[in-house]
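User: Show me an example of a complex going from sequences to C-alpha cells.

Assistant: Sure. Here are the input components:
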Amino acid sequence: MLKERYPSKLLEDAVEAISSLPGVGKRSALRLALHFMRQPQENVHRFAEAILHLRDDVRYCSTCMMISDGEKCSICSDSSRDTRTICVVSDVRDVMSIENTGQFHGLYHVLGGIISPIAGIGPSDLTIGELVQRVAALRSESDAPVEIILALSGDVEGETTAFYIYRQIEKFGIKVSTLARGLGFGDDLEYADQLTLGRSIVNRQEFRP
Amino acid sequence: MLKERYPSKLLEDAVEAISSLPGVGKRSALRLALHFMRQPQENVHRFAEAILHLRDDVRYCSTCMMISDGEKCSICSDSSRDTRTICVVSDVRDVMSIENTGQFHGLYHVLGGIISPIAGIGPSDLTIGELVQRVAALRSESDAPVEIILALSGDVEGETTAFYIYRQIEKFGIKVSTLARGLGFGDDLEYADQLTLGRSIVNRQEFRP
C-alpha cells in the first residue's frame, strides 16, 4: 500500500498518536481524528484532561495493588469485608468483573499480569512477593483460617502462575482454592467444548434441589 | 446489565470520555484506559497534546475547505495543478483517497457532508454556496473551460446532493461530470451486485486493446 499523504502535519501527528492505541488501525485513527475536529473545543479538552488525570494522578492500593484514588482502595478500606480471604487475579478488570457479581466479600490481590515466558514476564514482574508478605502477615496476626483463591485463567500461563504461587504459599498451611470450572449456566451440552464438558462430568457436584 | 462499578473516579471519568468516541463501547474504553495507565507518562502527554493541537490549531483551506495547517492548503498552493477542474467531495477522507491514487491533478472542494433530511443536513449546512462562488469567479476570470467533477457516493443522499449542486451551477454552462461506476478492477462477474453489473453493461465502453 502507498504511504498515506496527509493534508496537515497536525492531522498526521494526531492519526499517528491515535493509531498507537491497541486495536486501532490507521483508518480508524483518521476517523477518530476527524471526529475530534468536529467536536466542540471544550469536549476535546475534557477528553484530553480525563486521560491526563488518569495517567498522572491515579494510584494503586498499597495493599492489593488495585487501581485507587488514594493510598488504600475502597475495597481494602471497607471494614465489612472478610480480610482473611484473598482472591488473586491477574488484572484490574478481573476485580471489576468479580465485584459486579456481588458474590465475593473478601479482598483481592492484583498480580499485574501472568507468568509468560513468551512475553518475557517472569514471577518477579508480578506482585507475588507482596502476596506472600500479605499471607505471612495474616498468619502471624492470628490463628484464624486464611484462604487464597487463585482466580486465574484456565490456560497454560494461568495454570503455571497458579502453580508457582501455590509453591510460594503452601508453607503457610492455608487453604488454597481455585474457581469452579464447568458448563456455564444456560450452556447447551451439545455446544460445549470437550475439555469443559469432560471436566464437568469428572468434577460433578451433588444435586441440591 | 448491572451498572459497572469503578474502583476509581479518575478511571470512571476516563472510561466515560473514551467511550464517547464513535464505535468505542464501555468495554473497549476500559481496555484503552488501562492501556494509558501502563504507558510512560510522556507518551500519554504526547497523545493528549496531539489531539489538543489538532482541535485547537488546525485550519480549513479558505478556498477548498480542506484541512490545512495554513490559510491555503498544500493542494491549492501547488501551482502545477489545474485550477479549472474542481473535484467536489463530501469529506476530507475522500480527498485523501483520491490523492492517493495519484490520478487527479485538479483542485478539490470539500462539502463537509452530504444533504440528508434524516440527519437534518440541508444545503445551507454544506459549502455549496462557496462552490458556486468559486465557479462564478473562474468563469469571470477567463473563457477557458471549467469542469466540475461530482465525486459523491452513489446512494440516494449522494445523488440528491449531486443533483442539487448541478442545478446551482448549470447556469454557468460548464462541464459537469461524475465518477465512472461499474465493476471494480479484478471483480468477478458472479459476485457483483445486480445494480452495478447492470449499469456496467448499459454504460459499456469501447474496447481499447
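The lines above are the inputs; the final block is the predicted structure for all two components together. Chain A has a mean pLDDT of 90.
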